[in-house]
Design a protein that fits this description.
Layout (H helix, E strand, L loop, with lengths): L2 H13 L2 E5 L16 E7 L23 E6 L14 H20 L13 E6 L8 H10 L5 E4 H11 L10 H11 L17
Parallel strand pairs: 3-4, 4-5
Antiparallel strand pairs: 1-2, 2-3
Length: about 200
């Protein structure tokens, strides 16, 4: 897994008040056929404010205040190298069926988190886009939940959120990723993305 994806995911959660670090290797990691495409980050909220309800399965940025701690997982992204990411709900659903679900059954059998403090950790899967049209939304949600996934989040949404946060009116950011985004915005090479859902093209 490229360090670029890890940088984006880590930066996104840190910007939203989480402490993020790489997950310790599983004692059964050697049983995997390949770990080159696996990335797990442990994220914990820095504050201890209780939430009135658990976060939704679709983790839009507005839901993150309800997430306390999670194992954030990137899987199957090597299949996208040199190819455009899936965009429509049908394409994302095929990506889940043909790639993700073939990896998750063996992984969820041995991804118990051994860290402090102990307790329940939500397993969050990062997808290129989210399936928002039916029946793909429900089918994808049910299939992933059956594999122990407690939430999914869009990589595109992370990039859009970080772009919006790189405000040209504030002090120059310190992180490498934020500085790159800020420079691109200052030179009108990228603009804030619209975060609302939009009509999909036919698959």
């Amino acid at each position: 897994m490229s360090g670029i994806e890890e940088m984006v995911v880590r930066e996104f959660f840190e910007q939203h008040g989480f402490f993020a670090r790489a997950a310790p290797p599983s004692p059964n990691a050697g049983r995997r056929k390949s770990t080159a495409d696996s990335l797990d980050l442990l994220v914990m909220r820095m504050d201890d404010k209780p939430s009135d309800r658990p976060p939704g399965f679709f983790l839009f940025p507005t839901e993150l205040t309800r997430l306390r701690r999670a194992v954030v997982m990137l899987r199957g992204w090597q299949t996208l190298r040199g190819n455009p990411p899936p965009r429509t709900s049908a394409q994302v659903h095929r990506f889940i069926q043909q790639t993700i679900l073939k990896i998750l059954p063996a992984e969820t059998e041995q991804t118990e988190v051994e860290t402090e403090p102990p307790g329940d950790w939500t397993r969050v899967l990062v997808l290129p886009h989210l399936p928002t049209a039916e029946p793909f939304r429900t089918q994808s949600t049910e299939a992933l939940a059956a594999r122990g996934i407690g939430g999914i989040i869009s990589f595109r949404g992370m990039l859009a959120d970080l772009t919006a946060r790189a405000d040209g009116g504030g002090p120059f950011p310190s992180s490498t990723l934020a500085r790159i985004i800020r420079l691109l915005k200052d030179h009108d090479l990228i603009r804030d993305a619209q975060l609302e859902l939009f009509p999909e093209r036919n698959p």
